[in-house]
Amino acid sequence: GGSGRPRRRHSFSRAHEDHAVMDEKEAEEVDHLFHTMHSHAMRKPVEVEQKAYFGVEGTNYARPDSMAADEVLKHLTKRNKMVADMSPKIIIVLLGLGVSLLVNAILALTAVIENWKIKLVASMLDDSGDDAWVSVWGVWAAVGVVCALVGSFFVFVAPAVRSSGIPIVLAFLNGAQLPSVRNRFGKMVDPFDVTTLLAKAASTVLTVASGLFLGPEGPLIHMGAIMGRRIVAWLQRLTGERANKVLSAITRGRVKPNTERWFPVDMEQRRDFVAIGAGAAISGAFSAPLAGVLFVVEEAASKITLSLLELSFIACASAFFLTWSIKDSTFIGDGHVKFGKPASSFCSLYNWKDGFSFLVLAIIGGLVGAGFNSIVVRLNKWRQRAVNPFPARQILEVFVLVVVSCTVAVVIPAMWACTESKPQLMMQGGVGCLQEEHWTQLSPALASHADAVKFYESSGTCNTPSLSAREAEWLATNVDATDHEKLIYVARNMSEIPYITFQNEHHGACGAASFNEMATLFLKGGVKAVTMLLTRGAPHIFSLPALFIFFVVYTLLAAYTAGTTLASGLFIPHLLIGGSLGRLLGLLDLWLITETCVDNHGVDPANMSVLEWTLSGYRESLVSCVVPDPGTYAMIGAAAVMAGSGRITVFLAVVMLELT
């Protein structure tokens, strides 16, 4: 649950690996020196400390430059050198594909359980209406309790399953030697062994599907790192006698050193494999290969080389290719964090005032992210004293948290009023920045002004709407029949649009022609809820009260959930927290500009037709006033909260770019 990451150490941070060649007194001196220097300000050792300080040398971040190494290289043939150069790349491709396959399997299993829950609840509400909410609570809570308790069991099997695992990965990559930990069954379990991998995979699927306010992305990064470490462990089995035989064969018996560092890849690259595995997990989960590479460069690796950059790109590209190949399948695609991009010509509406608004939102979001961290840290300190030493209390905490979370997720939607799915949700305050599947519900085509005039002149045929005298006047005044460049939506008859749909809304007990805002946010699943928050072109699909209540409730429960005895990530929670905050501020900005600038041209925005929206001049007034889109604010808010919590910059910017 922590947000900070270990600072990079110098070569002496590897002291603990060299204790085997020190006597006990020397080891004590080194430990005391390192503790003194790292507990206070970094300083140069004084003369009496220099023997201990310079007596330890770490070689894990550099290839060995020695006569033995030169001797090996000298006797390698051209073919052997090519094989030695290609071996890491082949292994890296397999690592990327393997990590992506694991990531997609976990997301698919999670999506299957979540979709089953959502469909079950929807069918109950469709059959019984408002009377079914009590039964919905029972089903939602029962499934959540079972999934969460079974998921928490795997923490007792492998303690490193708890939380996201990213601090463990970053600590290892920055020089810390992570010891094996005794689980509740008396077995020593390493944070990077197969037991931890399998237990974390199972716990992630169950806890995310339980309905708790968490996500799978952090654990996926840990699992990718474990797979990178396991590949190195497999390679290490080729060392010793077997590797000596191989090297003796390829050098025709002329060189027989210990080849631990030379076949088939350098063993000092084991940290690089862990970092690359983590980056491949990001690429596979988010379909974001550049973000995966940048995670390795900016967040994970302690020493950046061209070789590491090249191998990271190969692994992330391989992971992305596999995800791209299979993500469109029915159940796998539902679990992916990927958001649609509006495809109309009315989206790029910004000015310097928006930049100021985004800056204010970024500051507020950063403070929210930092405050979130503060709550998590304080809760974890309390939990360390009062809960974690007692297994029964850990189980009880998970049980109570699931019941509370499921109760909140059902009771608030049950108390919330329905929102009519009327076309005006896309038109009121909206300039038409819509995805194709949205704007085609209002219009059969996006046409030039000249073509639009021809379309309306055929009024009364081919389902073309008939124009009133006022609408005909608007057409003659506001639409240029000679302009073949400027675009406009041609209108459908309002009788053809009984209601609209956004694909990811939750109808609750409202029926097909309405939806429940709170059910959409609480009961639809994290990815789908974020998709709705980031929806552009429909400013009023969420109201100010709904966004405010969701923001407060979700932030508090997500902060408490972060450190419990479960595998949990914070990426989706941060998207939801920041998205609701950003959309809330975007609605306030939209209201302010609408009240001070926009001319309604005599139409009622809450009840207007598509013809009135496109022909009256109302939409053009929105464009000229550069009204903000709350969906854009939601994306900025999500990025701001994540940056404030994770203290990440370039990597985060690229993630948001590739996600949207």
Automatic annotation (TrEMBL):
<keyword id="KW-0812">Transmembrane</keyword>
<dbReference type="InterPro" id="IPR014743">
    <property type="entry name" value="Cl-channel_core"/>
</dbReference>
<dbReference type="InterPro" id="IPR001807">
    <property type="entry name" value="ClC"/>
</dbReference>
<dbReference type="InterPro" id="IPR051280">
    <property type="entry name" value="Cl-channel/antiporter"/>
</dbReference>
<feature type="transmembrane region" description="Helical">
    <location>
        <begin position="541"/>
        <end position="563"/>
    </location>
</feature>
<feature type="transmembrane region" description="Helical">
    <location>
        <begin position="192"/>
        <end position="214"/>
    </location>
</feature>
<dbReference type="GO" id="GO:0015108">
    <property type="term" value="F:chloride transmembrane transporter activity"/>
</dbReference>
<keyword id="KW-0677">Repeat</keyword>
<feature type="transmembrane region" description="Helical">
    <location>
        <begin position="304"/>
        <end position="326"/>
    </location>
</feature>
<keyword id="KW-1133">Transmembrane helix</keyword>
<keyword id="KW-0472">Membrane</keyword>
<feature type="transmembrane region" description="Helical">
    <location>
        <begin position="133"/>
        <end position="158"/>
    </location>
</feature>
<dbReference type="Pfam" id="PF00654">
    <property type="entry name" value="Voltage_CLC"/>
</dbReference>
<keyword id="KW-0129">CBS domain</keyword>
<feature type="compositionally biased region" description="Basic residues">
    <location>
        <begin position="1"/>
        <end position="13"/>
    </location>
</feature>
<feature type="transmembrane region" description="Helical">
    <location>
        <begin position="398"/>
        <end position="417"/>
    </location>
</feature>
<feature type="transmembrane region" description="Helical">
    <location>
        <begin position="90"/>
        <end position="113"/>
    </location>
</feature>
<feature type="transmembrane region" description="Helical">
    <location>
        <begin position="356"/>
        <end position="377"/>
    </location>
</feature>
<feature type="transmembrane region" description="Helical">
    <location>
        <begin position="273"/>
        <end position="297"/>
    </location>
</feature>
<dbReference type="GO" id="GO:0016020">
    <property type="term" value="C:membrane"/>
</dbReference>
<feature type="transmembrane region" description="Helical">
    <location>
        <begin position="633"/>
        <end position="657"/>
    </location>
</feature>
<protein>
    <recommendedName>
        <fullName>Chloride channel protein</fullName>
    </recommendedName>
</protein>
<feature type="region of interest" description="Disordered">
    <location>
        <begin position="1"/>
        <end position="21"/>
    </location>
</feature>
<feature type="transmembrane region" description="Helical">
    <location>
        <begin position="575"/>
        <end position="593"/>
    </location>
</feature>
